[in-house]
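User: Quick sanity check before I run a bigger batch. Here is a single chain. Can you write out its predicted 3D structure?
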Amino acid sequence: MTAADGSLSRDGLRGREAEQERVRSLIAAVAGTGSGALVLIEGEAGIGKTALLAEAVTRARAAGFAAGVGKADELHHIAPLSSLAASLLHGDRPLLPGDAFADLAGSHDQRIWLVERLAEAIESRARGGPVLIALDDIQWADPLSRFALQHLPARLRTSPVLWALTRRQGPGGPPEEIATAAREALTTVTVALGPLSGAAIGQLAGDVLGAAVDDRVRQLLEGAGGNPFLAVEMLTGLRAAGPSGEPVPEGLVVGVRGRLASLRPATLRFLQMGSVLGRGFTFQAAAALCGSPPAALLEALQEAVHAGLLDDEGDQLVFRHDLLRQAVYVDIPPSARKALHREAAGHLVAAGHRPIDAVSHILRSAQPGDEEAAALLRRAADEVLPVIPGLAADLMTHALDLVPPPRPSGFALGERAIVCLTRAGRAREALAVADRLLACRPPLDAFGRIQAALGGALWNLDLADELRRRTEAVLAVGGTAPEVVARLEALRALALSRGEDLAAARTAGEGALRDAIAAQDREAHVLALSALGEIAQNAGENALALKRFAALNAVDGAYLPEEIVAHLHLDDFACGEQLLLRAADDAGPPRPAMLQWAQAQYHLGLGRLDDAETAFVTMERLEGDVQAVVQQVNARVVRSRIALLRGDRDTARHHLAAARERRERRPNPGNTAAVHFLEAVHADADGDVAAAVEAIRRVQRVGPFMRWRLLRDWVDAAVRMALRGAEHTLAEDLAAQAAAHAAQNPAVPTATGVAAHAMGLVRNDLGLLEHAVTLLRASPRPLVRAAACADLGQALLAAGRETEAVTVLTRAHGLYTETGAHAPAAALLRLLERAGAGGRRRQAAPHPVQGWEALTASEKKVARLIAEGHTNRSAAETLVVSPHTINTHLTSVFRKLAVNSRVQLANVVAALGEK
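Assistant: Done. Predicted structure follows.
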């Protein structure tokens, strides 16, 4: 079957019966099981990918799917979310209103928030029936759409959502990354379209010509190589030639030039202008590029549509196939193409389009020295920075290439390029750009601005000494604007926070804060408060650290996680909880990974090991999503300790190996100290006392504040290792650190109790251990209380006070059991049995790994809510947690229950009744 213009109709997929059946089966599976799936249709241009995709959409709609269809464009692959917009934000029944992301602004990466918003909208839509999201030519998808496609299918794997994507065949690249990410989470099918068989091509020829196919036509069709689009174009030309028997124009064998040759020159020029604008373009834009009023081009438009080269969709004109546009485009001389793209960019901006809409034309046309183009690229970079910082960095580096220093504007462009590269996590590139700019001897003010812009990159690279050296050099030279001076002073204070002289660092930070306020510069204000918070935290001054981080959060709400953790260091879990609840109510909190870190610390402090593990897993996933690795090492260290507390040695070793591997990528002092401490804990668990003591010594050598930030709640374990190794001096040093910390924080029960506990161990002083237990009754940390009770109980046994010992050991056993710390609970049970008091207690049975009883308490709550029909968002609102946390819980629930969809989960929960 053919359409009026000779093209393949949707039900004319000759030779694709097997491929159609695979797609139909997948549609039926998604509708039947309620779980997600992805189909990737691939093949060369013109092979029939779009036709098969259209057939999938038709079949899905007939099966009750709500379908959204979009297409990526070769010339419009820059604007964020433009590729997915047609299927997700537009159409007769859009999933979201067109202005849904108008508030995507701010100083922090919003990609995670955007993906979650999209997921919630699609998930909500899928509650009413299955959904198909189709996107053609994903090899041309814009970066933000590619990011979304790498994460949305997995995020929505439990909902009846079918993703149907096409791509031109080729090695690797974004399409393969999308498919790989999907394969790990849901059913993923690749449908590779090869050349049509000779029989199928013959049937196709009959469809087009409406008559039997003779030998001459068969010989001609061999030139199509089994490509249905080229075959149809050739046959259309043959049909147009009529029965005269005149030879078909030679160009049809290799493309469509023969069809273009018959057009009037004005029509061909109109098509050429359209091909510069992209596969889809407006009549007005093409007329402007032609330099003619629209009325003068009506005949050209009519001829192009009648010839089957363009489709008129009302709001825009569209080339009927990409190959048609490309055939027109390649016949424009390269020099003319550049000029036309530059002119097109100017027309778009003049017509009120966003700068990002003109970027594709700028990238194809701008010449060195084009300052106007560089300025437009900078505006576009500023526009996309909050949602796709990598693209912003690419645009700024291109702008810098157009207008490099020593041009005055080149230094300003370079400064902005450094900022964008840093935000994109490309700190080493930012450093290279800065050094290239500085080699051109910029004016003093530009010199200072470049060094200030570089500060974030140097900090992220853990080059604190280099940051201090550079800032001091600029400040010594002078000639910099007051607000830049304030930023440099704040950066210097931040660098000094990593040094030994914290008093000098504090003085520098306070001076920077005064100058930032005087200059009324928000960036300097944030940097100064951040530096002062780091300094106070490194000095162990918990109350002052809270004051600094609370002020920082008031200036920039992205620093809420730091304020939450500062409350926890003061044992103020009530305020920490209130702040976490407030964050859960925020639809799009900045830095969601760091917020999960704070959530994990909250749960860990309260002994909620399962929930802490969930938060750490979520944090790692969110950091990985945007490739912003900050707390990966620390998360694995804590997860390894949690596994040891649970008695899961294999998992603990796995996390140790992961922590070591991540430390190699970022070997800063904090990560190094954390891994050394974990190595000590593992060596101690393995009975290798010498190795444990040596690892603790390595922790001591890393640096005083890094050492103490790590050991503030775990120092008792380090002291016990030192004493077992007969390293009394080391144990005394550790206990002295705890005492110094307690002296700075006398109102913090955990600090004073831990200090008394450590000193009681060192001195083998029963009175101090009893005092520690008394002090820690006011501590909200059950694991800390349990450890102190366990050591006191053993000391009481050694002193022959068995009745008191059993009471205290029983309390410790109960605390460990309540938190799920099965390993120390089992050790205490054995101790109680040896003391003749274990008969009334039973060792906890091994925790199942599959089935309903394998779920944690939080996972059971989530499972019941989802089974009741809640979305991730509504479940998160009910439990007052992040949707990201719900997603992590669901991943675990589906794995443990061996189900693949919300429908299947609902059936499992219904079968359980009130269990």
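The chain has a mean pLDDT of 88.

User: Great, the batch can go ahead then.
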